[in-house]
From TrEMBL:
Pfam families: COX2. The keyword Zinc does not apply. It comes from Allobacillus halotolerans. It is found in: Cell envelope. Its main location: other. Residues 60-153 form the Cytochrome oxidase subunit II copper A binding domain. It comes from the Bacteria. This is Cytochrome aa3 subunit 2.
């Protein structure tokens, strides 16, 4: 084997092992792995579901809120949410029809909401203001109209 071949073999082996270790640390130590054992919900029976039958904003602790939200063409329910500044908000969402997106402009919140699955995402809102919520998955002819707001007061 040529010297250069040995060098490149060593370099690429080290890189592969390095990437595997980095991925392993992210997944197991930081819990950043892909979701598994996700909660399911029958998309035909969302209205009868114990949680999703009553979408709304619920205060679950001091400065803690849970927003139970259903998405359908072309709306977010509830929409026009208002919460106090400094609140930690957990969004629990599902879709009643097709795949929608849930993006809060100006934050890192950006999730896919699929029928049959429960999507949970938590965000703390420290800065007062109006935040735009957008659907960023094409969901039909009214997709561009699918938006609402969160007002932090
Ligand atoms: Cu919902 Cu696009």
């Amino acid at each position: 084997m040529l010297k250069h071949e040995k060098i490149w073999l060593t370099v690429s082996s080290v890189m592969i092992i390095g990437f595997m270790i980095a991925t392993g640390i992210q997944t197991f130590a930081f819990g950043m792995g892909p979701p598994s054992e996700t909660e399911r919900v029958d998309p035909q029976k969302v209205d009868e579901h114990e949680v999703f039958s009553e979408p709304g904003v619920y205060e679950v602790g001091e400065n803690k809120y849970e927003v139970v939200m259903t998405l359908e063409i072309f709306s977010f329910n509830p929409g026009d949410i208002e919460i106090p500044a400094g609140s930690e908000v957990t969004f629990k969402m599902t879709s009643k029809d097709v795949t929608h997106g849930f993006q809060i402009a100006g934050t890192n919140v950006n999730a896919m909401v699929m029928p049959g699955y429960i999507q949970t995402i938590t965000q703390t809102f420290d800065e007062p203001g109006e935040y735009l919520i957008l659907c960023n998955e094409y969901c039909g002819s009214g997709h561009q109209l699918m938006a609402t707001t969160i007002t932090v007061v």
